[in-house]
Amino acid sequence: SRSSNADFPGIKERTLVAVKPDGVQRRLIGEIIKRFEQRGFRLVGLKMLQAPEKLLAQHYVSLQKKPFYPSLLHYMTSGPVVAMVWEGHNVVRSSRMLVGDTDPAGAAPGTIRGDLSVHISRNVVHASDSVQGAEKEISLWFQSAELIDWEGCDHNNIYHL
Ligand code: UDP
């Protein structure tokens, strides 16, 4: 129930996941959503957008000095992205595991990148790398009114409260 959720704040953890332009072009939106949905996480925000360069500059602020930064921005603005917010227990860490290593060559089979991509510069998906980073990224990509706090009827089968 909603009241018992409040006793387990970890269940309310949220992360930003984005299907990058190559993932959209390659018709992988459904496949990527499916993996988070079937794992048991709860989708609380979803939109397709042509990401503005200003947003991406803030999103990738820590990579500004990297040699690949200009090509990363070019890639991320090459077409629409699908931005999502997923919620659940340890969702930040679990999402990074679902997504796999940044370089698909080192990403384990079974992960999204390990199953669906080949090259580091076209690795189909983004997921926040820390709880703090997730909070920052969610506030960059979504307005609070775009996040829907709905009750899952399967909640008591996914969590033991
Ligand atoms: N990237 C790249 N070349 C590199 C490293 C990173 O093109 O050598 C891109 C890649 O798309 C990666 C993104 O920059 O997903 C962000 O890099 P980060 O190290 O934050 O990896 P992530 O958190 O996405 O796994």
UniProtKB/TrEMBL annotation:
Q: Which residues form the Nucleoside diphosphate kinase-like domain?
A: 12-149
Catalytic reactions on record = a ribonucleoside 5'-diphosphate + ATP = a ribonucleoside 5'-triphosphate + ADP; a 2'-deoxyribonucleoside 5'-diphosphate + ATP = a 2'-deoxyribonucleoside 5'-triphosphate + ADP
One GO term under biological process is:
CTP biosynthetic process
List the Pfam families: NDK
Q: Which GO terms describe its molecular function?
A: ATP binding; metal ion binding; nucleoside diphosphate kinase activity
**One GO cellular component from the entry?**
mitochondrial matrix
Against CDD domains, the record matches this protein to:
NDPk_I
- Keywords recorded for this protein, A-Z: ATP-binding, Cell projection, Kinase, Magnesium, Metal-binding, Nucleotide metabolism, Nucleotide-binding, Transferase
Enzyme Commission numbers on file: 2.7.4.6
Q: How does it sit in the membrane?
A: Peripheral membrane protein
Q: Which family does it belong to?
A: Belongs to the NDK family.
**Where does the chain bind ATP?**
20, 68, 96, 102, 113, 123
Group of enzyme by EC: transferase
Q: Which domain of life is it from?
A: Eukaryota
Q: Tell me which residues this entry annotates as catalytic.
A: 126
- Required cofactor(s): Mg(2+)
Where does the UniProt annotation locate this protein? Answer: Cell projection; Mitochondrion intermembrane space; Mitochondrion matrix
What broad taxonomic lineage does this protein's source fall under?
Answer: Eukaryota, Metazoa, Chordata, Craniata, Vertebrata
Q: What is this protein called?
A: Nucleoside diphosphate kinase
